[in-house]
């Protein structure tokens, strides 16, 4: 009986210790977003200014109020127009689809993923400041940061200020992985020389772009510089992935309904551009399934035994997409699960998976069998011609993996200058 009591006491002490450890690691106060700080300070930063707001359904306070509605309530400044990025204001328009202008809240809403991706001079002529409040996902190819870049460029040219209401990187600020975009491969899905997972908030990204001279050059051949101000968050730390913050997740696009979809996109995003295998689009877990009707799961599993996927767990699974690739067909493959830590490297895991795929299914990863548009998008997503050629021309795995982190060490060193949070 004494042994039972002793075990019970040990168990209780153990649970208390765990609870205390969790309490110690949690923030003592909830994270205050840039918009929360602006409201807390009664919009004083923008007093008397006419505002254009880049936002969508993800631009919200900690208490889930829409940022646009908070701007409409204040009399300190005047909201005159809205800009929206890819996927539209309600984040419901599929990737790559044209987003039209519209009217909301009796205000003009100008699409920056429609007829133009950079604000026009006349769209900025009646405002003083463009305020940015939008939830990014921390992946280079996701075009929200590209739209911020284009806004900074236009405002630098036309003499308008940009104020960014900062928000967390949902992957945290420590997950940094992938090769830096080559100069020749810069595009709208690779707008700046950063790795695939950049580990920055939007405010940090914008500061880096501005200070590194990455905006286009003016008529004198000098890189433009934006009048930029960041409204920093409070109580956010770099180790915090989304689950530790206490914020409600609002889908940033149709295929990013959850934070795990972001983690899956960090692994499978480039592969998805090839269109050679299902990545779960058309299921309730987009970017979290990978497979096909004739997927050689045993061969892939054997190949991956000697090539650790850096913490990404692959669980054998069957699934059936309801639309998209292999719609209505049963697919064998894997369900992806992810660690809640900042030491995993999902982009590298995706490259390793692709290397296993090219051995198990050489017919799929074959240069001659790939459509021209798929090759082009895959190369842009990778941001490297050499990496693209290495993958599709059977370059040894070790060399491909080396190319998949080219420029990363230099980037990490440079990045230190622009980190706004510990």
Description:
This protein has 422 residues and is α/β, with parallel strands linked by helices. The protein has helices spanning 2-25, 34-40, 67-73, 121-124, 144-158, 202-211, 259-274, 297-305, 346-360, 372-382, 385-392, 397-403, 408-415; strands at 50-55, 78-84, 102-104, 107-111, 129-133, 161-165, 227-231, 289-292, 313-319, 331-337. The strands form two sheets. A seven-stranded mixed β-sheet has the order 3-4-2-1-5-6-7, sandwiched between helices. The chain has a three-stranded antiparallel β-sheet with strand order 8-10-9. Helix 5 links the parallel strand 5 and strand 6 (161-165). Helix 7 crosses helix 10. It is globular. The termini are far apart.
Set out the fold topology.
Elements: H1 2-25, H2 34-40, E1 50-55, H3 67-73, E2 78-84, E3 102-104, E4 107-111, H4 121-124, E5 129-133, H5 144-158, E6 161-165, H6 202-211, E7 227-231, H7 259-274, E8 289-292, H8 297-305, E9 313-319, E10 331-337, H9 346-360, H10 372-382, H11 385-392, H12 397-403, H13 408-415
Parallel strand pairs: 1-2, 1-5, 2-4, 5-6, 6-7
Antiparallel strand pairs: 3-4, 8-10, 9-10
Helix pairs in contact: 5-6, 7-9, 7-10, 8-9, 11-12
């Amino acid at each position: 009986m004494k042994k039972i009591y002793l075990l019970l006491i040990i168990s209780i002490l153990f649970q208390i210790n765990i609870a205390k450890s969790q309490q110690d690691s949690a923030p003592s106060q909830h994270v205050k977003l840039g918009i929360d700080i602006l409201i807390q300070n009664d919009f004083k930063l923008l007093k008397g200014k006419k505002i254009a707001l880049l936002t969508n359904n993800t631009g919200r306070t900690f208490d889930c109020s829409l940022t646009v509605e908070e701007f409409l309530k204040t009399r300190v400044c005047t909201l005159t127009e809205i800009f929206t990025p890819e996927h539209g204001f309600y984040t419901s328009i599929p990737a790559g689809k044209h987003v039209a202008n519209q009217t909301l809240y009796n205000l003009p809403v100008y699409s920056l993923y429609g007829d133009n991706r950079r604000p026009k001079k006349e769209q900025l002529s009646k405002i003083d400041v463009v305020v940015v409040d939008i939830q990014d996902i921390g992946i280079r190819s996701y075009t929200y940061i590209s739209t911020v870049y284009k806004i900074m460029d236009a405002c630098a040219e036309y003499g308008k200020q940009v104020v960014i209401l900062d928000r967390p990187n949902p992957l945290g600020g420590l997950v940094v992985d992938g090769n830096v975009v080559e100069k020749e491969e810069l595009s709208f899905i690779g707008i700046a020389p950063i790795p695939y997972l950049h580990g920055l908030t939007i405010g940090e990204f914008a500061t880096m772009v501005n200070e590194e001279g990455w905006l286009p050059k003016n008529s004198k051949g000098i890189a433009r510089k934006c009048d930029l101000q960041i409204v920093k968050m409070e109580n956010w730390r770099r180790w915090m992935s989304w689950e530790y913050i206490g914020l409600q997740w609002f889908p940033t696009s149709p295929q990013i309904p959850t934070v795990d979809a972001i983690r899956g996109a960090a692994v499978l995003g480039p592969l998805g551009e090839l269109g050679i295998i299902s990545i779960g689009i058309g299921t309730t877990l987009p970017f979290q399934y990978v497979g096909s009707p004739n997927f050689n799961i045993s061969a892939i599993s054997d190949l991956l035994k000697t090539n650790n996927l850096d913490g990404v767990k692959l669980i054998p699974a069957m699934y059936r997409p309801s639309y998209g690739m292999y719609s209505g067909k049963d697919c064998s493959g894997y369900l992806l699960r992810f660690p809640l830590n900042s030491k995993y490297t999902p982009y590298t895991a995706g490259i390793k998976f692709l290397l296993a795929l090219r051995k198990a299914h050489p017919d799929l990863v074959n240069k001659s069998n790939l459509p021209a548009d798929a090759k082009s998008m895959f190369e842009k997503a990778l941001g490297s011609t050499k990496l693209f050629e290495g993958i599709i021309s059977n370059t040894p795995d070790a060399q491909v993996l080396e190319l998949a982190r080219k420029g990363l060490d230099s980037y990490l060193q440079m990045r230190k200058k622009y980190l706004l949070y510990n």
